[in-house]
Amino acid sequence: METITLGTFILAILAAVVAGLVGGAIGGVVVGGEDLGKELAAMLGSFYGVIAAVPGVIAGLLLLAMF
Questions:
Q1: Cβ contact 16:54 at 8 Å
Q2: Of 5, 25, 39, 63, most Cβ neighbours within 10 A?
Q3: Which residue, 20, 26, 29, 16, is CA-closest to 48?
């Protein structure tokens, strides 16, 4: 079984940031695009998307490292 290296950890965090930005922006436009305007909804969605994605990936990597 391979261990998780620092490079793998950083790469996973970067992937989580990018996925959170893109997914949050799309979700923000879909949910609040008409009320807030598409630009503001995308900006807020990308902010909250990263807040949700990064801790989840960190928790997953820590669980993988333990087992």
A1: yes
A2: 25
A3: 20
Residue 24 in tokens:
């949050």
- Asked whether the beta carbons of 25 and 45 are under 8 A apart, the reply is yes
pLDDT in tens, 10-54: 999 999 999 999 999 999 999 998 998 999 999 999 999 999 999
Residue ranges of domains in the chain: 6-66
Question: At CB < 8 A and 24+ separation, what contacts does 62-66 make?
Answer: 64/4, 65/3, 65/4
- State pTM to two decimals: 0.83
